[in-house]
Structures are given as C-alpha cells and as structure tokens.
Amino acid sequence: MHRRAVAALLAAVLAAGTPAFSEPEVSIIQAKDHAELKEKWCTADPNVEHVLVLPASLFVDSEELICDGAPYKLYRIIENDDPDDYEYFLDPPFGHTTRLGCDGKAGRTMQTVALNCRPLQ
Q1: Do 36 and 14 form a contact (C-beta atoms < 8 A)?
Q2: Are 87 and 76 within 8 A, CB to CB?
Q3: Phi, psi of 59 (to 5 degrees)
Q4: In this structure, what is the dihedral angle of CA atoms 62, 89, 43, 20, given to the nearest 10 degrees?
Q5: Would you list the DSSP string of 63-105?
Q6: Are strands 49-55 and 26-30 parallel, antiparallel or unpaired?
C-alpha cells in the first residue's frame, strides 16, 4: 500500500509541473484516449525519460500504437505473487536503434495509471 501512495504522489508532483529533480530531463505525457496517446507518443523524444499518465482502460484490449510503421504494444498482466495488482506495459518495437520501454504497476481497481518510460539502446 505504501508503494502505491508514493508512486501516486510522485506522479501528482510531476504532473503539476513542480520540479522534483533537476536531472534527468523528464517529459510528462497525459492522454485521455487512444487517439490522443498516439498523437503525443509518436512525437515523443525517444532519448528522454517520460512518465505516462493514462486511463487503465487503454490497456484492456492489448491495443497497439503504430508510430512510423512500428508497433508499440499496450497490455497489462496480473502479478502472480500479488493478484490485487496489474503490471502495465508499453513495449517498444524491436529493430529500432533508439526506442522507449515503459512499465508500471497499479491496483486492479485503479482508473488511472502512471508508467515510467526509459530510453532503450
């Protein structure tokens, strides 16, 4: 429970624009639906860390985001050792030299989730 409270507080501070850290540069992306996420995600800098704040419902049907012909997969899974939580993923396409990988964890009843995204090389 404490872990979720800390993650929610950090997401709220970052979303409010209050600088919590001076380094590294972090971009906050908030979207209310798949179309808005695609618009913002496909133009995101793959060399910068991102925090995605999204409705949990975007991960229900394992949709893909297609950016420059490459698919990013959105999905969630139930944790084996903690069935009250989901793990959320936005997996990058393979074959690109610079890409972002995202993951997060939230309770099964959460309506909004935050994912941490980092450059993969």
Answers
A1: no
A2: yes
A3: -100, 0
A4: 150
A5: -EEEETTEEEEEEEEE-SS-TTEEEEEEEPPTT-SSEEEEEEE
A6: parallel
pTM above 0.85, yes or no: no
pLDDT, one tens digit per residue, over 15-71 is 555 555 456 678 999 999 999 999 999 998 888 899 999 999 999 887 788 888 888
Structure tokens that stand for 43 in this block: 């133009």
Residues 6+ apart with CB under 8 A from 33: 55, 58
Number of CB atoms found within 10 A of residue 70's CB: 15
Domain ranges of the chain: 27-119
Does residue 107 contact residue 87 with C-beta atoms inside 8 Å?
no
